[in-house]
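User: Could you write out the 3D structure of this protein bound to hypoxanthine? I've included everything you need below.
Assistant: Certainly. Input first, then the structure.
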Amino acid sequence: MTELRNQIAQTLEFIRTKTDAKPVIGIILGTGLGGFVKEIKKKIVIDYANIPHFPVSTVESHQGKLIFGTLAGKKIVVMQGRFHLYEGYSVKQISYPVRVLKFLGVENILISNAAGALNPLFKKGDVMAISDHINLLGDNPLIGPNDDSLGPRFPDMSDAYSKELIALAEEAALDLKIRLQKGVYVALQGPNLETKAEYRFLRTIGADAVGMSTVPEDIIAVHMGIRVLAFSILTDECFPDALQPTHLEEVLKVATKAEPKMTAIMKEVIKRMKP
Ligand code: HPA
């Protein structure tokens, strides 16, 4: 057994002492987006700090909890709190929990993040379904020997964000009368926000939103054959010719205010997913 498979086995062994739940949907909640948790029924909560091989979050706005439960009658597992490159973690560490989710039974993952809007037609407070990504992290969680028992050496990325799940989200948003934007997410390391010149560059290469997460988790999900649906809450407008300073407090305020829209869409998508 490879070292990675050994670690996964140890993590699973610990989780199995707490619950025998077999969730089919995984959810990764981003910056200031923990409100979704209130919707979960029959919760079993495990602190990341107690889980072997799980990284521990260092960002104040993130909690580190793995939550099992049900929502709309479906078995789910939620990661409240995620990890970023700028905290000093490697992309392998960041995406490790996704491998564990797969072994718990997860077939679909919903991801949320806070991002800056690059598309000038988008507004602060909008929710965007990620249709595709550009990886500018300068790293990749699949670098190194490939464990063929987990996934292919050269994963295909033509459906990196499931078209089927995006269609489901668009239908749900329409029925809920919530505006849902759709676009390309570009990930950078951070932690500083970008310069005007960088925003212009990112827009030119085809990005609609910019952030510092989600891409490592998506790559590992694709590697393991998990379908991904990801949402960005657009917390600030990164328009180079009219750029205003952005502060974390404002990002969190906008994320908190817009979160109910995203939570409503996610809940509706979960309800409509095939059992
Ligand atoms: N860049 C710019 N604005 C943002 C980001 C980012 O990475 N995340 C949230 N708002």
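The domain at 3-272 is CATH 3.40.50.1580 (Rossmann fold).
User: Perfect, thank you.
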